[in-house]
Amino acid sequence: MHYKPFPHAAGRSRRLMAVSLGTFASFNLPAAFAETTAESRDTTLPAVTVSEAAQPGLALSRPEFTGSRLGLTPLETPASVEVLSGETIRARGDQSVREAVTRATGITANPAPGNGGTSLTARGFAGQGSVMQLYDGTRMYVASGTVTFPFDTWAVDRIEVLRGPASVMYGEGAIGGVVNVVPKKPTRGPIENELQVAGGTQKTARAAFDSGGKVNDNLSYRFATAYNRSAGWVDRGDANNLMVSASVRLDVNPEFNLTLSYDDGTQHPQQYFGTPLVNGSLDRALKKKNYNVGDAEVSYRDRWTRLNAEWTPNDRVTVRNQFYYLTSHRHWRDSETYNFLPATGQVRRNDYLEILHDQEQVGNRADLTVRSRLFGLDNATTVGFDVNKINFTHSNNSPYGGTSVVDAYTFDPGLFFSPPGIVTSPRFRTNTTQYALFGEHRIAFTEKWSVIGGVRFDHASMTRRDLVASSEWDKTFANTTWRVGTVYQFTPSLSVYAQYATATDPLGALITTSDAQRNFNLATGKQVEVGVKQAFWGNRGEWTFAAYEIRKNDLLSRDPLNPTITQQVGEQSSRGLEASASVEVLRGLRLDVNGTVLRARYDDFNESVGGVLVSRAGNVPTSVPQQAANAWLTWQFLPQWSFGAGLRYVGGRYADTANRVRVPSYTTVDTSLSWRVTKQAALTLRVYNVFNKYYAEAVSNGGQQWLLGRPRAAELQANFYF
Q1: In angstroms, what CA-CA distances link 37 with 33, 34, 296, 314?
Q2: Does the residue 61 lie in any domain?
Q3: Domain membership flag for residue 207
Q4: Reduced 3-state DSSP string for 399-455
Q5: 14 near 22, Cβ under 8 Å?
Q6: Domain assignment of residue 50, yes or no
Q7: For residue 135, what are the domain limits?
Q8: pLDDT at 499 over 80
Q9: Is residue 106 scored above 90 in pLDDT?
Q10: Which residues cross the membrane (predicted)?
């Protein structure tokens, strides 16, 4: 199968870019805001650098923009915000975004080929429709539950995590939280380069290069690329990926700059959909078996182009605009469901599926931030808009069929086939136009006490065309969400906060709303949260604590009087505690720990089982662990030597709404030993999953099929700086 580009895509991109720049240029600010002193109008360009030095700890005093567009620090934000620096991520050996972000408090993964390997869980809510993922503040709308970019951490400057409802910031689909991957940016210092080469067990190999710096007084750049390949940990588990990230910044004058960025990612992950259980448990003799067909295919190609403009006429006013054009092409051709047959010692393979996604998204986001004093009080306000258009085409070989039986231990994988007369072809197409208006305001009543509020209005119009039946229908979603919070800083390094927020979530994925969901609205939610944050011991230690309750309403549930009828009356909730700490115990010895415990439940949820209505009220939602913890110890025991060790714990989960199939908890340990040979070279030896724990990262087929995580693996890495 070949991917076909969307017609007229390039023309639409050029037209929208022109509109974007025109919109940006049309901001007519009051003269009072534009006035500056002679000193502030100095024509010397200010130094712009992005420090690659890791900020140890929780970075509570570092401004971030995921929890608030006002550029507040986590200490000033009435929400649970966590920042993972890129250097810390790479020092821990986390090469994928999923590996990195699941070391943050309360974030766990539920990766599978069908969701792009990126599905996350936070605060009792799982999946792409409840935990949103952004790249440099921009989201690609979820299509059929799948997001595939970003995936590699080599080009990451930092990852910012906002836990809890974030619809007021980013729209529908973020009741559990938001993960924002911020890439490295151009720097105006001297040009610096880094080369990394690595190799290890499972025939892994990696080559990566990063370069950035000043070309002249007005022009700077950043370029990063990484290539990975592996034979995997199952039969026929070959995988490879390539990431390229490039950006150029033009400083037109001290107040105005433009940054053009392009990112390209190609992935061919393992064509592995899991291992079938034998009598409800894992048979170690099957742990390396791959029951997919011999010509299976899983591939993703994502391309992101962004043009950022920023104007800061003085220290009180900032105007930002981002034009973006994103495309994604995905292809699956697999047999995806396997069942062990005890009577014969064979495995039956079902679901011979071929699916293609072709997605295009073009849009523009702009905001204006003004800082002022009103009635003697410090104020900060951000207002803005976001508009985009998404075109999506879904191709498949439905009605899905195909069945084969192979020996469980020795078999020919065979080839993919569809039932006679069934070919893969486009089945439906959606066109979605979305716009949003948002605002946020902070007022400081005293030096210690501030109140922050925000509001967002979202409007989305979708047309879905059935390309087989030649029919179509339209659907419009319109929602307003808001939040309000307060922060009291007893000292500059100790704050307590409280927040109330509302949210909206799609019933599946907004741009692929199905025929069965067309008559329903988005689910709604609300959260109450309180917490405390503190830096102590001369900033050698930091800690945070949060308690929250979230309720999500309007789930699809069966009518108690007629099980054949679906109603939007269900409810789901979670309440929990989260804590994190980072302490420099001794000079050169730092300990980072975090953990969460929660109670997630279906409060009102009915299913029809064999035509009989069954209540799931009181049960735990699927794929939601109710405990999770991380720890990482870093010890620089000699001037040029350092040791690291990390622990990851994920509690047990249920694979079904009836809570009859429980997936065991697991704990893995990773270690590293680094030697800074010279200023220009370093060597690192890493061992992942030291104790060779076998565990399920994700499950399918009603919990009878485990997608196993990586077993013990070792890697030797060399870095060169020049």
Answers
A1: 12, 10, 65, 9
A2: yes
A3: yes
A4: CCECCEEEECCCCCCCCCCCCCCCCCEEEEEEEEEEEEEEEEEEEECCCCEEEEEEE
A5: no
A6: no
A7: 9-41+56-721
A8: yes
A9: yes
A10: none
Identity of the highest mean pLDDT range in 37-41, 53-57, 345-349: 345-349
Query: Per-residue pLDDT tens for 256-268?
Result: 999 999 999 999 9
Residue range 628-648: average pLDDT? Answer: 97
Which helix (H) or strand (E) segment holds residue 168: the answer is helix 167-170
Token pair recorded at residue 493: 């390094």
Q: How far is CA 566 from CA 175, 553, 555, 558, 609, in A?
A: 23, 15, 10, 5, 13
Secondary structure (H, E, C), 52-68: CCCCCCCCCCCCCCCCC
In a domain, 99, yes or no: yes
486-524 core/surface letters (b: 16 or more CB in 10 A; e: else): bbebeeebebbbebbbbbbbbbbbbbbbeeebeebbbbb
Rounded Cα gap, residues 220 and 218, in angstroms: 7
- 307 sits in which H/E element: strand 297-314
| CATH code: domain of residue 162 | 2.40.170.20
How many CA atoms within 13 Å lie on the side-chain side of 267?
Answer: 24
CA 394, 398, 404 angle in degrees (round to 5)?
130
Residue 391 to residues 318, 432, 465, 560: CA-CA distances in angstroms? 32, 6, 11, 38
Give the SS3 label for residue 38.
Answer: coil
- Which residues contact residue 380 at a Cβ distance below 8 angstroms, ignoring those fewer than 6 apart? 70, 369, 370, 371, 372, 441, 442
**Burial of 2: CB neighbours in 10 Å, binned 0-12, 13-18, 19+:** exposed
Lowest mean pLDDT segment, chosen from 46-50, 458-462, 523-527, 602-606: 46-50
Q: What is the pLDDT of residue 684?
A: 98
In contact, 557 and 566? CB cutoff 8 Å: yes
Q: What's the confidence (pLDDT) of residue 36?
A: 38
Strand partners, 302: 265, 328
**Residue 256 burial (10 A CB sphere; 0-12, 13-18, 19+):** middle
Check: CB of residue 513 under 8 Å from CB of residue 473: no
In 3D space, the residue among 303, 395, 330 whose CA is nearest the CA of residue 9 turns out to be 303
Q: What is the pLDDT of residues 114-158, one digit of tens each?
A: 999 999 999 999 999 999 999 999 999 999 989 999 999 999 999
Structural domain total, the chain: 1
Percent of the chain with pLDDT over 90: 83
Residue 525 and residue 165: Cα distance in Å, rounded? 8
Cis bond before residue 399 (omega within 30° of 0): yes
The contacts of residue 505 (CB under 8 Å, 6+ apart) are 125, 129, 130, 172, 173, 174, 175, 522, 523, 524, 525, 552
Write down the number of H helices and E strands in the chain: 5, 37
CA distances from 226 to 91, 204, 240 (A): 16, 13, 11
Q: By C-alpha distance, which of 20, 606, 688 is closest to 306?
A: 20
d(C-alpha 61, C-alpha 200), whole Å: 38
- The pLDDT, as a whole number, for residue 286 is 95
Count CA atoms within 13 Å of residue 327 on its CB side. Answer: 15
